[in-house]
Each structure stands twice: as structure tokens, then as C-alpha cells.
Amino acid sequence: MLGKNLFKPDLIVAGPVSDLSFAWLKQRDIAGLILDLDDTLLALGEQMVNTRVVEWVARARLEFRLYIVSNNPNRSFIESIALSLSLPFINRAAKPSRRALRRVLQELQLPPERVAIVGDRLLTDVLAGNRLGLVTVLVEPPGPSRALRGSWLRAAERFFFPDVVVVRPGGIPPEADLK
Ligand SMILES: [Mg+2]
Question: Is residue 176 part of a domain?
């Protein structure tokens, strides 16, 4: 961990979570995925997870233990989305705090290096994951996000951390590992 840029994801996917390659995760012996919700599983402002993401979750659950960890305080909304995907969840997680992530590791009985956190934000998802020694994956929202504030934050993050923002057209070859 020493010297690692805590804002640097291990992988940047130039697309939504449904473009995340299982092969890349398997190569790293990942057994669990902590999934952000807003602008990761669901574009902000949407009420339902789109079909591509639903199908990706259905395939992912055959390979990995899945857990939703969201900073969103709206418990009933997060619960309805989690129920629709049949996934366990924690809301109001306060990422980049590590507390909720530690709880998930304990529940899943997995060491941090075997768990990847997947999210759309450097300052919450990636920072929290790197602080705990998880594998970190940055993704794009799964649809047009209505979160003007979110897009501003993302733009700001990319302004301040331009070296970690790499747009990769096409698939995710193993060499996309940025470590
Ligand atoms: Mg998010």
C-alpha cells in the first residue's frame, strides 16, 4: 500500500458496470464484489435497474458474492432496488469511511485482496476501497444520469486526477490493469 495513489483505481472501465469483465476479476482471484448503487447499478434519477445491468448481476452472482454498499440515505429506495436484484445492501455507508466495507468483508468472510469495489466515484468508492486494500474498479453510469451535481463532481475529479482517467474504447484486455 505504501506509496500507492489512493485515488487511483486498479481498473477503469470505459463503460457501465455491465461491461466489467469477469475474466479480469478472476485473474486476480476476486471472490466478492462490493457494488455502488447510484450511477453504478442505476443512473441517478432512474427508478429501475436497466435490463443489461440486471442480466450482468444475474451472471455475476454465479461467479462472485455480491453486496450493495451505498452512501444514499434513502433506505426504502435502496432496499427496493436491492430486493429487485435479490442482493444484500448497506445504505448510508459514508464512503470513503471503511466501516461499512469492513462489515461486508466480515459477513462474506473474505480478505480485502479478494474483494473488488465497483463504483463511479474516485472520492468515495475508489478512495474507500484503496484505503482498505480492496481491488478498485471505476465505471461509468449505466445510462444518462440526471445528477447534474454528480456530473460536476465527476468532472472535478477528472480535472484533479487526469492521470488516472483513461478512456479505453472496446473491451477490457488484461493490460488495462493500471497497477
Ligand atoms: Mg455512485
Answer: no
